[in-house]
Amino acid sequence: MATVTSQFAYVEIRSVSAHARPFALKPVGRRVHSFATCIAHVRERGVTVMAEPTDCFLRELELSDGSVVAIRQLSSGDVGCVVWDAAIVLSKFLESQEFKLPGGQRLSGKCVLELGAGTGIVGIVAATQGANVIVTDLEDLQELMKINIESNSHLITGSCQAKVLKWGEEVKDLVPKPDYILLADCIYYEESLEPLLKTLKDLTGIDTCILCCYEQRTMGKNPQIERRFFELLKEDFKYEKVPLEKHDKEYRSEDIHILEIYRKT
Length: 265
What we know:
Layout: E1 4-5, E2 30-34, H1 35-44, E3 55-62, E4 68-74, E5 76-77, H2 85-94, E6 111-115, H3 121-128, E7 132-137, H4 142-151, E8 159-164, E9 180-184, H5 193-203, E10 209-215, H6 222-236, E11 237-241, E12 256-263
Helix pairs in contact: 2-3, 5-6
């Protein structure tokens, strides 16, 4: 697993991208109080967390109504501890007029599941749109997701909770079938592709919409991993690419793609 350590929880990890983007030209985090202080604050609110103290960095994302989602990132850890560009693009797409139904909220009251949630930003934004969300990732990211959920609870109009989910394992406790499954930059490790596709097959119903946002990378084995993902995807799913002009007008890039994916009938 890759490890990142940088002053802004951004500089080192961003080196995997081939292109800079308008929304990533400056450091995307500012140092805030220690993670131990973050934990203490959340424990006061009745949320159980057990993480060890470390520094955290704040990433703020302004929503279309002017409210600000504040996401804490860790200064060091695995790739899930920071906010990636694809997560920002998908978050802004979820609240865009192109995605919302005319005269209403497309996500309001819907059951939404995020896989590989990391910091939880995409699921939290979905919850601000009225969705009932479960953000999932490995055990070591649960504390970070819980803190970010609690820190943004005043913006949530649906609901949001964090759960452990390891791709490829049983998903019995994650029923009923979600209306939407969210994926942001999960096409990354070759060894995770088959477990990811198994989990998608286990979780999806015929009407489940998977929104998969990923950055197309050209370095190293990334093109090979991307090709393999689509080979596996086509076995059980059909998909369409969301045109770039339907992405958020500011938070978009030609090398970040959003797919709408459904089970084959």
